[in-house]
Amino acid sequence: MSIPGMRRAAVGLTALAVAALGAVATTPEQADARPKPVDVTLLALNDFHGNLEPPSGSSGTIAGQTAGGVEYLATHLAELRAAAKKKNTITVAAGDLIGASPLLSAAFHDEPTIEALSMAGLDYASVGNHEFDEGAAELLRIQNGGCHPVDGCADGTPYRGAGFKYLSANAFKTATGKPLMAPYAIHKVQGVKVGFIGMTLEGTPQIVSQQGVAGLTFTDEAETANRYARELRHKGVQAIVVLLHEGGAQAATGGINDCVGMTGPIVDIANRMDPSIDVVVSGHTHQAYNCNINGKLVTSASSFGRLVTDIDLKIDRRSGDVVSAAANNVVVTRDVAKDPKQTALIDRYKTVLGPVADRQVGETTEAITKTQETLFGTTLGESPLGNLIADAQLAATDDEQNAVAAFMNPGGVRADLNAGPVTYEEAFTVQPFANNLVTLDLIGAQLYCVLEQQFVTGRTLYPSSTVGYVVDPAGTTGTAADPCAGTRVVRGSLTIGGTAVDTAATYRVTVNNFLAGGGDGFSALTGGTNQVTGQIDLDAFVAYLTAQSPVSAPTLDRIRTTAEVPAA
After folding, report:
1. 307: nearest Cα among 63, 41, 30, 561
2. Quick one: CA dihedral 476, 477, 480, 482, positive or negative?
3. For the chain, which ranges sit under pLDDT 70?
4. Geometric angle at alpha carbon 45, from 247 and 260, rounded to 5°
């Protein structure tokens, strides 16, 4: 048969088929027999850290705008849901909703934050490292409800637990091998299933006190996500979202919706994730970005409730697969109406908190920030506020325990101090962890090793005013297995009280109990002997502010480079 004959035959068959059906396609929608995809909107946040009230200073701005505060966050979430119209909206978070919180939340074991986010419509959240600050049993109470075992229901009302579901796929009970919490959740939207896998960063034991993670084991994020993605697929779930409390950072030139020169753990993790995973909502690094990594949409909404990530998914009705995914980081501006329910919650807890928060404990002559100075091209330098805290910790232990030096970890300095009067609440916001001070013996060689470990961990220990040393940018960096092999700290340059440290002599040094236990990767500190536990770090800080007021920002001259101090 000729080709034209074949065409005619085909056309005739089609006409018959159409006649049999009794209908003719008259629009593109009718011509396309495939059903329209299901529109799903995800509203995502991360690293809220109990910031019910708008954060102050630099922590309260982003993209050139003042931002944050749960009264405004709730309003923006409601408006974004309304704007989605027929779309189905699910609100999610990527960990650290609580912990390292301002006094208004922390004084009540973060119950106010859980209540506020539940009212704001949160559905699912991964467990971050700070959710373990008070241990696994407390995290389970936060999820399930009940009064605190020691402090009871401090506001006089029962605590009912979270109105959302915490997920953690890679935190396991060591004794049984079972997950501490539900690893994932399946959410049905117009007949299609969306799977959410919660993921805590694998390195949680290195940055949380040992008491907080006792009895737990944390596994690799990508491997665990892939494992549960397979399980979800076996249950008919093809649209998969990972809520991951680990992240990265883009170059300083990138805006809140950019992905410029992306670096950090999130890149490797996303690259190792199974192709069936469509979206990764990330956190931990407090950065904002909007990326495509290895075919996956990867987002982060900075921190403190200053951004909400608006994620639009289109999901095929038949296959359940994500057809497309796009995101936009939206600033939580303060030019909208406050949510009245959130205002009432804040007022209730502020009333219970009473005058303690407003008590003036000192005064500063200028703003004292936690910002680190740049040291040979990286932010591995000192911090005015970090140095001030180290000085306070030394002052609290120099007489009592004969300490001659103190060191403070950068992650424990959570907010700036504004110029003028300092209230107890402001001091608490700077140091909210309630760590105990620990004074211990280190020989000089161990001190050098601790300082070399800074360059392995990528974290600077802020030194007290009695400490000084010189760093060589051309020196070698040790390894995780042998940090003492590094040569970044010029030998002979380390002084305490102006006298060169003798590598064989013993020195009494004060750190917090987190560092004393090897926190932030400073395992060299676990070799300290004759440990004596002292007062809470916040109490030492408050006492110092009171005694030394008005307080000024310390000079940043405790760590210098060979460019400033040429070799003899």
Report:
1. 63
2. positive
3. 1-33, 86, 376-379, 567-568
4. 45
CA dihedral 467, 470, 475, 480 (to 10 degrees): 10
For residue 206, the model assigns a pLDDT of 86
Q: In whole angstroms, what is the distance from residue 471 CA to residue 563 CA? A: 9
- Sequential DSSP letters for 383-448: -HHHHHHHHHHHHHHTTTS---EEEE-GGG--S-B-SEEEEHHHHHHHS-S-PEEEEEEEEHHHHH
Q: How many degrees, rounded to 5, is the angle at CA 73 between CA 247 and CA 139? A: 55
Q: What would the two tokens of residue 324 be? A: 């497309």
Residue whose structure tokens are 């910002």: 371
3-state SS class at 283: coil
Distance CA 148, CA 128 (A): 20
pLDDT in the model for residue 568: 54
CA distances from 110 to 116, 130, 154 (A): 10, 11, 11
- Three-state DSSP at 545 gives helix
Q: What span, in angstroms and rounded, lies between the C-alpha atoms of 541 and 392?
A: 5
Residue of 19, 13, 59 whose CA lies nearest to 430: 59
What stretches of 22-110 show up as alpha helix (H) in DSSP? 28-31, 70-83, 103-106
Whole-number pLDDT of residue 376: 65
- Beta strand segments in 79-183, E: 88-93, 124-126, 165-167, 171-173
Alpha-carbon Rg for the chain, nearest whole angstrom, is 27
Burial 236-269 (b: 16+ CB within 10 A, else e): ebbbbbbbbbbbbbbeeebebbbbeebebbbbeb
Site of tokens 């590598």: 503
Q: Which two tokens stand for residue 192?
A: 């299609």
Residue 350 phi, psi dihedral angles, 5° rounding = -65, -35
pTM score over 0.85: no
**Residues 6 or more apart whose Cβ sits within 8 Å of residue 154:** 107, 108, 109, 148, 352
Q: Which pair of structure tokens corresponds to residue 447?
A: 């001190």
Query: According to the model, what pLDDT value does residue 208 have?
Result: 86
Letter string b/e over residues 206-220, b meaning 16 or more CB atoms within 10 A of that residue's CB: bbbbeebbeebebee
Strand partners, 368: 417
Distance (Å, rounded) from C-alpha 528 to C-alpha 516? 8
Structure tokens at 374: 């740049």
Per the structure block, which two tokens stand in for 535? 């007062």
Residue whose tokens read 């409390």: 245
Q: What's the pLDDT tens digit per position in 7-40?
A: 333 333 233 233 333 344 445 545 456 789 999 9
Residues 6+ apart with CB under 8 A from 261: 250, 251, 254
Distance CA 237, CA 253 (A): 38
